[in-house]
Here is the input.
Amino acid sequence: MAQYIKIADMKDHIGKTVELKGWLYNSRSGGKVLFLILRDGSGLCQAIFEKKDDLADLFQQVKHLGQESSLTVTGTVRHEPRSVGGYELAVDSVTIVHNTQDYPISHKSHGIDFLMKNRHLHLRSQRQWAIARIRHVIINAIRDYFNNNGFILVDTPIFSPAAGEGEQNLFNVDYFGDEVALSQTGQLYLEAAALSMGKAYCFGPTFRAEKSKTRRHLTEFWMVEPEACYIDIHDLMALGEGLICTIVDNSLAKCQHELDILGRDTSDLQKIKPPFVRLSYKEAVDMLHSDKVANWMDTRLQNTLDSIGQLKDQIEQWSQELASVQKQWQIDKLTSQIADGKDNLADLEELAENLPKHKELAENFKWGKDLGGSDETIISMQFDNPVFVHRYPREVKAFYMKSDPEDPSVVLNYDCLAPQGYGEIIGGSMREENYDALLGRIQALGYVQEDYQWYLDLRKYGSVPHGGFGLGVERTVAWITGVKHIRECIAFPRMMGKIYP
Ligand code: 4AD
Here is the structure.
């Protein structure tokens, strides 16, 4: 009997008869031969089914199988470098498990709204498959990093009686008659755990009623949060730096194939090496005001306008070719190139429109404000590595952050900005460990002291210097995969106006 194997293991079975179980990703008929592209979750492979007299009926049935039909196929493995995945199956027999017709997502380009409505099926595309696998590797790398560095996993609750990150974006739910919120962060509970474990981390979904529909914001996102005792802000930056390097190293070592599928040029990821630049908020503001940045913005605008011109010419050229080609695959390829080109063009045109506004925002940035998305992009694009911006003004940051003893107008915090404008991927800080100082912040912000009494207790019994951070998984996945919009970086994204499927 043929051994059942996964496509990814075909390399170990050359010349052997094996069975593959999967789905029909694509197929093409060449007269007496069918070229079936199978997927089985581990990869793609081409199966060559030749028409023979004894299998003529089956041949006809398989020929008319629709995309995403499920089937098992038995045959001999051959090395074939020109074939997808590098191996091919010479088919002996096929068993049809489920004949699918009219699968809604074809291999042509579809609009993103359509794909998102069909997300339950969209996940089967090569692109989504690749993103999901990279996400998996990133999450494993994160877990390994903390597990190997002495952190204990502690799961924190999702129903929370009080806000952890300000009250503006809470999702309230009815909890047996009481109004409670879905957790924005596990941090406050994790601080309690860290005072028990020394070092702890939590990893789970977090919720923010973000009314913005940006590429960087979800209402439900996954965050890993480490918390450690007896550390300082320098240790905390080193911890974040180590985590990011581990994520990058693992992604490059284990996901080259997936990154290739996404067309991700990894040369910039290969440049990621510690130490990352540490920039105080004040230095970041000076940078935004500098002539260097103003000139850089002008050059960027000019380059964007040049790219728009080139892309328009290219789309025009593809459109002319489209009018003259006959073969369906050529028509499909050009149609998809044109659709992608138009998407990119729309992005570039939006960028060209925004750059002058972003330049003005940067020039007029006032000390004391939080950095906006465009400011973060400008700063991050001055560096190859991620960059830490530390010591933000007290007023724009959360109540629990510790003031800098050398300048109480700022706090001992940092945001880590990913390169290439992917924005903030880590936010962290040292925590206010003094009871009275923390109570003062809680009262100044008008929070109900009772809600935070347990948290204040941590400053009453064996208080120590401690700190931690949160890394957003989807933003990190977006950066590593080079995917523009965070909605593709989680299987079923939740955003304002998006809850189905
Ligand atoms: O900076 P934030 O709000 O930090 C905290 O929640 C702290 N309590 C963490 C801690 O110190 N333990 O969020 C941390 C990270 C951000 O850097 C970003 O990567 C991600 O969470 N994030 C979001 N990701 C997607 N959609 C959103 N709406 C996000 N808001 C934050």
In short: The mean pLDDT is 95.
